[in-house]
Amino acid sequence: MKKAMYAFVVFLLLGIFFSCEKDDDTTLDTNGPNVVSNIQYQFKDSSVVINWVLPSDADYEKLAIELSLLSQPENKQTIEVTKEFNGVEISGLQNFVDYLITFTAYDNSSNPSEKLMDTIMTEVFPITISGKEIENGIYSTLMDNNQDDIDEEYSHEFYSTDSIKTNSFNLDTSLTEPMPITLYGTWTRKNDSLQIKYTKLEVQGSVMDYDATDIYENAFMYTDNEKTYYYAPALIKTEGNNNSIIGKYSSTQRSYMVNQEGGYFENKITIELIVKKDGTWTQTTTSEMPDIVQPIEENTNGVWTEQDIRDGLFELITFNSKTYIKSNTSILYEKE
Fold it and tell me: 39: which of 49, 175, 269, 322 lies 20 to 30 Å off by Cα?
């Protein structure tokens, strides 16, 4: 009887032990929550606003955001956002510098989720203005021919009858008076391009027949600081974010002329502008005259600063759902 009672007690104790061990296994939480999803960035000058969708886990507690320069991942700061919020703004960042950002969600037992990593960059965004169709009027500009004593003043006069008058004044200081040249013709629009067909040429009061055509792939006008400009050929964005100055731009102008002897001449001028996030820009102008001379290429380089963007030295222009840039090398014709 004693042996039976002893065996029963041992069995009972073993049952209690295994029962407790089983309960401990079911209550011990070692699984982390899901990480946040649908992360959205709104980049600003030196700051970024981040929003996300919270995980559906009932025990989700907080989100830890680690941020460091991509070039210095060991020097990181951590921002913790509790479960009541689904967004945060991080300020004091360096513009035009890549950052490594890591998202980790935690539950109320401090279990981490899988890490979600990304790279971000804040920047100074340029002013963006709207372009519009060319209006009738007189637009003029002064062009530097990269010679010490020679500049040229150009003006385009657009008329509602689709006629155009282009004046060119050679401001050679070696001459007693500027030498005026006037071209007469018509202008037409096709999509975003502008075609000017010249039929008459006037030099010092003498008028003669003239057969020449200029085609600008992108041309429009815009108003900025209460002044109106005609911009052709405009530099259109071909690579990069449409809200940023960083990227690649290009423009093309084609000119055709038939001289009095029936000779045909063609000239194509292509401009490519590359603006980099390291503060440099490079502009390449290529002039091609087939069957006459080899292509002539001219490179211009420069450096831009964040203040240049804030001061409007670089501006973006939107026209017909496309993005263009006005840079410090753009040739603009101001409306008189």
Answer: 322
Report in angstroms the alpha-carbon separations of 283 from 47, 101, 193, 196.
30, 34, 22, 26
Between CA 284 and CA 292, with CA 286 as vertex, the angle to 5 degrees is: 160
Q: How far apart are CA 105 and CA 152, in angstroms?
A: 65
Residue 117 sits at the vertex; the CA angle it makes with 67 and 63, to the nearest 5 degrees, is 65
What one-character DSSP code corresponds to residue 122? Answer: B
For residue 11, give the H/E element and its range. helix 2-27
Cα distances from 164 to residues 123, 138, 178, 223, in angstroms, run 42, 10, 22, 21
| Alpha carbons 252 and 1: distance in angstroms, whole number | 109
CB 317 within 8 A of CB 231: yes
Strand ranges in 54-162 using DSSP code E only, listed in sequence order: 60-69, 76-82, 87-91, 99-107, 116-120, 127-132, 137-147, 150-158
What tens digit of pLDDT does each residue of 149-195 get? 445 677 888 887 788 888 876 544 454 566 788 889 999 988 889 99
Query: What six digits make up the tokens of 276?
Result: 């980099």
Burial of 123-155, coded b for 16+ CB within 10 Å and e otherwise, reads bbbbeebebeebeeebbbeeeeeeeeeebbebb
Determine the Cα–Cα distance for residues 260 and 266; give it in Å rounded to an integer: 15
More confident residue, 3 or 290: 290
pTM summary value: 0.80
